[in-house]
Amino acid sequence: MKKINSGLPAIEGGKPVRKKVFPNVGISQGRSLGKEEMILASHVIESGNLFRLGGLRMVEQFEKDYAKLYRVPFAHAVTSGTASLHTAVAALDLEPGDEIITSPITDMGTAIAILTQQCIPVFADVDPKTCNITAKNIEKQITKKTRAIIVVHLFGSPADMDPILKLARRHNLRVIEDAAQAHLAKYKGRLVGTMGDIGCFSLQQSKQITTGDGGILITSNKDLYARAVLFSDKAWPRTQMGQTRGHLFLGVNYRMNEITGAVALAQARKLKGIVRKRRKVAHFLSRKLQNVDGIILTKILPDCRSSWWMFSFYPDKKKIRISPAEFAKALAAEGIPAGCGYIPMPLFEYPVIRDRKTFGSSHLPWSLPAARKNIVYDRNHYPGTMKALTELIVFSWCEGVSEKDALDVYNAIKKLVQYYSR
Predict the structure, then answer these.
(1) What is the pLDDT at residue 235?
(2) Where along the chain do the CATH 3.40.640.10 domains lie?
(3) 246 band by pLDDT with thresholds 50, 70 and 90
(4) Residue 233: exposed, middle, or buried by beta-carbon count in 10 A (0-12, 13-18, 19+)?
(5) In whole angstroms, what separates CA 80 from the centre of its chain?
(6) pLDDT tier, 1 (very low <50, low <70, confident <90, very high otherwise)
(7) Confidence band (pLDDT; 50, 70, 90) for 5?
(8) CATH of span 35-270
(9) Is the dihedral of CA 51, 57, 58, 59 positive or negative?
């Protein structure tokens, strides 16, 4: 077996498939940012009022446009995807020590939303074919303390929502959709984020639309919306006639500012086109890779449409003689910036959860008297998660990737498969 060094040609004596920088979310050629964003942002600056409550009301218009796009009555913009999730959990008004089930393969923001509300994260294993949690695995984790489920639609690919929603109804559980990576993804004709009680989205740099950082949540529930708005504005009842500044409960300040709102508004108006471009080229690459013996594409459920935050696949270990980690390094050496596993370990192995590093030395919320005792997070109980985190090849995707770029990806993968076949 040949040793592969990242940054060198993967195959001795050969040339990398690609020398130029691959379009990515951190460079202008990868994104749809342009004059529209600059014009709206400059209007805000010229107005002199950058606060969301007044002036040109860019944030308010962004919320209206996003709600219309999703055909829901309510949308509320905040400062990040994490903030949208935290606000959603807070809107449920759960008790300290209550449990929320979610995925072990997600951004830490998902767990932050749970922990900062003094609730306890419980993890359901993923189906390694889709990398999303399933109703079957969620049901195994339900206890008397379970109050909600946060379903993560990883990489922009919808989780199987019908059985999850059925399970939630049977156990009287709330459902939050973590659609941070899944703007305009569709599940059986329904937009991801509209099926649970609240849908949460991120506008961070890498997402389908971006303001650098930002977030928005959507809901059809008037009461949840009202509490979400209050919570993210220090529980200040600004809209109640005759109401003094008195704060109604413990909230935070997650208000989106007008410059961010201006960029968000321009981006939201481009969202359909952005996702259309991502889908077109991702489908082109998927069709090409289906014919490569030795590659297993991540599964997208029937009647579902991913919005392609990342592209992912498995090297078939039965047919490829190097490890997935080595395959990812070899692919990077070919000019395709790939990695193995998305996050380095299951969420529950990060020190904040593993060692209960939360509030001083208190170990809250696990140490709460109301909390269920002896909760154990053991990677051996999560075979699907561990397969995905040790074998899956991922690389970022964006609307700037052309069919020519995708063809370079295909040629690099095919080259490596042929060279390293058993």
Answers:
(1) 94
(2) 35-270
(3) confident
(4) buried
(5) 12
(6) very low
(7) very low
(8) 3.40.640.10
(9) positive
Give Dmax over CA atoms of the chain in angstroms. 78
Of 152, 192, 169, the closest CA to residue 71 belongs to 192
DSSP state of 145: T
Q: If you search the block for the tokens 């460079």, which residue do you land on?
A: 27
Give the closest residue to 78 by CA, choosing from 237, 272, 225, 208.
Answer: 225
Q: Among 3.90.1010.10, 3.90.1150.10, 3.40.50.2000, 3.40.50.300, what is the CATH number of 272-343+385-419?
A: 3.90.1150.10
Contact 395, 338 (CB under 8 A): yes
Residue intervals in the chain for CATH 3.90.1150.10: 272-343+385-419
Average pLDDT, the chain: 95
Rounded CA-CA distance 375/369 in Å is: 13
Residue type (1 letter), 253? N
Phi, psi for 187 (deg, rounded to 5): -120, 110
pLDDT band at 243 (very low <50, low <70, confident <90, very high): low
How far apart, in whole angstroms, are the C-alpha atoms of residue 400 and residue 122? 37
CB atoms within 10 A of CB 301: 18
| 148 vs 130: CA distance, rounded Å | 22
240 pLDDT above the threshold of 70: no
Count of other CB atoms within 10 angstroms of residue 312? 20
